[in-house]
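ok trying again, last paste got cut off:
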Amino acid sequence: MADTILYLLKSKFADPKHGEQLFFCPHCSPIEGLLAMFPDVRQNLDVRYVDFARPRGDMADHVGDDQSCPQIVLPDGDDAHSKGLSEAGIVATRRIEAPADIQRYLIDRFGLSRPHP
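nice, full thing came through this time. structure:
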């Protein structure tokens, strides 16, 4: 299987609509937290930090115009853990965009402990 790519926004970015104030992505931070708790997961992903400004690096090559973050790209298509969570990307790729679905995918794929209800 080709590398699974996880796109996250860089931790400090400016949004020209809001002056020079710096921001972090509230949707990326739970994924960052999961990666911090389970560092072996990060080692098994191609984690790419992208700028807030679009286009966001090579994301368009995999997901087209929908360059929201976080987003995980499955270059070889779906696997057993992504069925029902992913949608079509570009060419043969599949992608998962919703942060909760990304977490669920990572938990299932890597056999992580589950969040307490």
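cool. The chain has a mean pLDDT of 93. Residues 5-110 form one domain.
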